[in-house]
Amino acid sequence: MALMITERCTVCDACVPACQNNAIKKDFPKYVIDPKKCTECVGVDDEPQCKLVCTVDCIVSDPQWIETKEDLLAKFHRLHS
Ligand code: SF4
Ligand code: SF4
User: Fold this and answer.
1) Arithmetic mean of pLDDT, 2-18
2) The pLDDT value given to residue 46
3) Which of 2, 30, 59, 66 has the fewest CB atoms in 10 Å of its CB?
C-alpha cells in the first residue's frame, strides 16, 4: 500500500530527502507522494522513512493503493532496475 500526505502537511521539506524512491514532490499547497513510486520503503528499509521524519504525523496509508509486500518489492525492483 502506498502512503499519502494529508492536508495537515506543513511543507517542512523533511520527508523529501528521506525517500530513496524519489516519490515525494511539492504540489502546492502541500507535498504529495507518487503512489507509483512509493514502496512503503520495502526494498530499502524496515519502515517508512518519511513517516519517521514527519513531525506532524500527516503521512498515512492510501486506501486507493492496496498492495502486498510482494507487490511493493516488485515495484521497488522496477524502479531501480
Ligand atoms: Fe518514499 Fe518510503 Fe515514504 Fe514511500 S514510504 S514515500 S518510499 S519514504
Ligand atoms: Fe509535510 Fe510531513 Fe513531509 Fe514535512 S515531513 S513536508 S509536514 S509530509
Assistant:
1) 96
2) 95
3) 66
State in Å: Cα 2 to ligand 2 middle.
16
Average pLDDT for 51-71: 96
Determine the CATH number of domain 3-79: 3.30.70.20
For residue 79, how far is the Cα from the chain centroid? Answer: 14
Which three cell numbers mark 39? 514502496
φ, ψ of residue 30 in degrees (nearest 5): -145, -175
pTM: 0.95
Q: Is 75 exposed, middle or buried (0-12, 13-18, 19+ CB in 10 A)?
A: buried
